[in-house]
Amino acid sequence: MLWYCRFRWHENTRAEDVRRRVLEQHEAGTNKPDKIRGWYNLAGGGSGFLLVDTDDPHELTDLLQPYMDLVSWDVHAIYELRYQQMIDEFRQQLQATA
Fold first, then answer.
1. Considering the domain 2-97, what is its CATH architecture?
2. Distance CA 7, CA 96 (A)
3. Are the C-beta atoms of 67 and 13 separated by less than 8 Å?
4. The organism sits in which domain of life (predicted)?
5. Of 47, 55, 88, which Cα lies nearest the Cα of 71?
6. In three state form, how does the secondary structure of the chain look?
């Protein structure tokens, strides 16, 4: 399962705090880089999102919890839509109803 994990830094969070925490968690082996499909920052800093691939919501929580004092999380389960496949399916569905 793929999870969209939007983050926003808390008001008093500094870049140095985030850098330090990421490195601490990396060294502790809790960041699970094999589960992180993508890590994106929004222009301007202070927010962004992770795409995390895991079927275990407990594993997801274990990954995100160490950062909760620095950022707030907004987490949603997501799934991928392949554009051309969807176009083909929409055509078929519309033809079936015509």
1. 2-Layer Sandwich (3.30)
2. 42
3. no
4. Bacteria
5. 47
6. CEEEEEEEECCCCCHHHHHHHHHHHHHHCCCCCCCEEEEEECCCCCEEEEEEECCCHHHHHHHHHHHCCCEEEEEEEECCCCHHHHHHHHHHHHHHHC
Q: Taking 90 as the threshold, does the pLDDT of residue 98 lie above it? A: no
Q: 80: which 2 tokens?
A: 């991928």
Domain ranges of the chain: 2-97
From residue 24, give the alpha-carbon distance in Å to each of 28, 62, 83: 6, 14, 39
Residue at 12: amino acid letter: N
Round the average pLDDT of the chain to a whole number and report it: 96
